[in-house]
Amino acid sequence: MIKVLLRLPSARIAIGVLLVIAVITLFGPVLAPYDPLQGSDLTLAPPSAQHWLGTDYTGRDVLSRILAGAPLSIVSTLEVAGIALVLGTIPGILSVYLGSIFEWVSLRLIDTLVALPFLVFAVAMTALLGNGITQAMIAVGLLVAPLFYRVARAATLTVAQSQYVEAAVLAGASTGWIVRRHVWAKVLPPIAITLATTLGLGLVVISSLTFLGIGVQPPTPTWGGILASDLDYLPQKAYAPVFPAVIILVTVLAFNMLADAIRDAAGQSGRVLVGARAAKANRARRVAA
Amino acid sequence: MRRSRGRRLAVSIGKPLAVFVPVFLLGTFFTFLLGHLSGRSPAYIQLGDAATPEAVAAVEHEWGLDRPFGVQYVDWLGDIFRFDLGESWFNGHSVAEVLLDRAVITLSAAGVALVIGVVAGFALGALAARFHATWVDRAVTGFTTTISVLPPFVVGIALVAVFAVSLDLLPAAGYVPIEAGLGPWLSHLILPAIALSFDTVADVARQLRDGLVSTKRENYVTGALVRGLGPRRIFFVHVLRNGVGPALAVLGLKFPALLGGAVVTEAIFGLSGYGVFATQAAIRGDVPAVQGVLVVSVVLVVLFNLVVNVVLNRLAPAAARGV
């Protein structure tokens, strides 16, 4: 499937962008040309050779702040997606196998989590439980988990009702064996799609929280926090929010493109895609010969 | 005939109630549990960090916090049904009264956003379905895909930067009550409402387009065409009425997002609605105030979804019959 994925141009663009973001995340604080916390007399300066993206209201270099803010923003996004993956997928698969009481209770829990106004609860949970980035990630991860639960449950249901699983049960296979052998293969592609979507969503939510000053303390640089400080100085520098906004948007867009590409590469449509390409190549070879 | 209509209404309320009563009970339980787990106490807000253990115990006894968890929960839940959300630990004001003033602002913004979402979403969706598989359809789909990935805080800041700061057309911040006139009220709400509505516009347009396109292929639409009915009548009576279901259902799902988005848009546009109130109260550790906001938002979501369900059941005759 990964081979098919890499043949899609959109997947290659998405992966390329995400690699750049990964480099920024790993080496951002080292690459930053200035100290992201050190102010100077040069406040709200436009982009120049010394300060590529200009400076903010206390004269701090905006490029350095974006680079230094990358680890916190991206790593917490990854952890949100990881927490949601574990909290959603495992109960989602088990809800099909563990009997109707577990199924009913877990479905009602998921209904409730979906109906809650997401950001209000994320803000309330994070701030009340100690206002740290760890609390923020657990709160958001828990609130995003229903996405994984529903996808995993739907995929598992189609497998559980199929004839080859029925045959395996009749042949005496255990539930654990069926989950490992048959369910994973069917559940994995939709989970991968959801994971890519969740990473985009997670970055938006983490940026929203840091924008509100929830989960971090100033002057810690975060992408959302940079936006918030730019907002106060719009009359002086109206284009300032463009830089942090663009990097958030590009990252979210890359995650969404990756999700679409996995959807295209997985399953039936992926096989058709490979088949069509092979047929085209064969035709070209025959014409040449 | 009369009886069957009555029964249909009862089913259309009863069935979602079976889903939403557990949602309400679990949602309020989460809310209470959250306050309990936070370990916050009114004693530290009132007395400061240097309070003696005896003084803390005295304040907690005064607020009834030394009772068992179950007793506190049942007491709190009972108060909710009497519209009593307790008093703020911070200044002793009635949370219900403070929230009522705040909720008017939030609901105004969410309401205007909902109207924009429905009007623009329906217009775009109907346009794409009418010109299905032409460049109009592709342009609308491209537009809705683009606006659906834009986060509300980016849209909000862009709107302030362009319309309030650069062009100076609309006020950048603040709220004017509707008694001061419709014009000033709307001019303060239109930018936050647009920022909130993007996601709803995109989803409603997408669902309506798909719904209308698939309904057009149904047998009863072909039948109506064969009977020689006019295109306008076919569209409004046959296609729209049966194809609108998914778009309405998605509105029910989007409402929590509209209420939740208020937290960010209110901060950008300087509206002192319940989102800003929730953030401030949560940072201060004012547990009753935060719980009040959460309970009100759960109740609003449940009520809105019940209304959507009733409308859905009244609208879609063919879907209910299973034609």
Characteristic key phrases:
heterodimer, A: 289 residues, mainly alpha, MetI-like fold, 0% strand, B: 323 residues, 14 helices
Please specify the SSE layout and strand pairing.
The complex is a heterodimer of chains A (289) and B (323).
Chain A: H1 2-7, H2 9-31, H3 62-97, H4 100-115, H5 118-128, H6 133-160, H7 163-170, H8 175-211, H9 223-232, H10 242-265, H11 267-288
Helix pairs in contact in A: 2-3, 2-10, 3-4, 3-6, 3-8, 4-6, 5-6, 6-8, 8-9, 8-10, 9-10
Chain B: H1 2-37, H2 42-47, H3 53-62, H4 69-81, H5 95-130, H6 135-149, H7 152-166, H8 182-216, H9 219-226, H10 231-243, H11 245-269, H12 274-284, H13 287-315, H14 317-321
Q: Average pLDDT of chain A, to the nearest integer?
A: 84
Summarize the largest interface: chains and residue counts: A-B, 43 and 51 residues
- Proportion of residues in β-strands of chain A: under 5%
Give a count of the beta strands of chain B, DSSP E runs of length 2 or more.
0
Determine the number of helices of chain A (DSSP H or I, runs of at least 4 residues): 11
Tell me the span between the first and last alpha carbons of chain A. 31 Å
Number of helices of chain B: 14
Q: Which whole number gives the mean pLDDT of chain B?
A: 82
For CATH, the homologous superfamily of chain B is named as MetI-like
Q: Into which percentage range does the β-strand content of chain B fall? A: under 5%
Instruction: Please name the fourth-level CATH homologous superfamily of chain A.
Output: MetI-like
